[in-house]
Amino acid sequence: MAAGRSGRTALPAGNRAERRGRGLASGLQEGEIRQALQEGGHIRNVLIVSKCIGGVVEHLAYLRASWRRDFLPLRTWNDRGDRTYRDLDRLLTLIRADFGFCGCIPVYIAGDPDLARYKALARELPVAGPLPPHCGTELCRAEAAPPG
């Protein structure tokens, strides 16, 4: 190894919080994504999960970026909460046009058994309650229905 090198690879600017020792953010913020993309990073995969929030269907993107390890949700400024969209077209425009992602973007409904392959997501998504397209109605998933 060359003198003066620690053997560590430099983190993209999107990970400045990690370098300052503040720990990992729980998601990806738009500013972090844009900066890391400008510095040569790229979005590897995207999936969208549709779920009921306050009686309406909202869509949350999970991104797997080259500078981070797992699928992480798109988060609001200062990592305060998930950045959800009621308009799926606006979310897709952000991912395609602004982030330059050209791959397949699957859209899942929260609780879909196929989400089990994304272990980290399956743990954090709700397993009970109304799901699209019955959002705002009394219909619930069979697993959430009371016995009898």
Features:
alpha/beta; six-stranded mixed beta sheet; 22% strand; 20% helix
Write the layout of secondary structure elements.
Layout: H1 16-19, E1 28-29, H2 30-38, E2 43-53, E3 56-65, E4 71-75, E5 84-85, H3 88-98, E6 107-109, H4 119-124
Parallel strand pairs: 1-4, 2-6
Antiparallel strand pairs: 2-3, 3-4, 3-5
Notes on the structure:
The protein has helices at residues 16-19, 30-38, 88-98, 119-124; strands spanning 28-29, 43-53, 56-65, 71-75, 84-85, 107-109. Strands 1, 2, 3, 4, 5 and 6 form a six-stranded mixed beta sheet that branches. Mean pLDDT is 76; it is low at 1-23 and 139-148. The longest helix is centred in the middle third of the chain and has 11 residues, at 88-98. A hairpin with a 2-residue loop joins strand 2 (43-53) and strand 3 (56-65). With 148 residues, the chain is an alpha/beta fold. Helix content is 20%, strand content 22%. It is globular and about 40 Å long. The chain contains four helices and six strands, in the order αβαββββαβα.
Q: Give the number of DSSP strands.
A: 6
Mean pLDDT: 76
**Residues in helix, %:** 10-25%
- What's the main sheet like? 6 strands, mixed
- What amount of the residues lies in strands? 15-25%
What Rg, in angstroms, do the CA atoms define? 18 Å
Give a nutshell description of this structure:
By secondary structure, the chain is of the alpha/beta class.
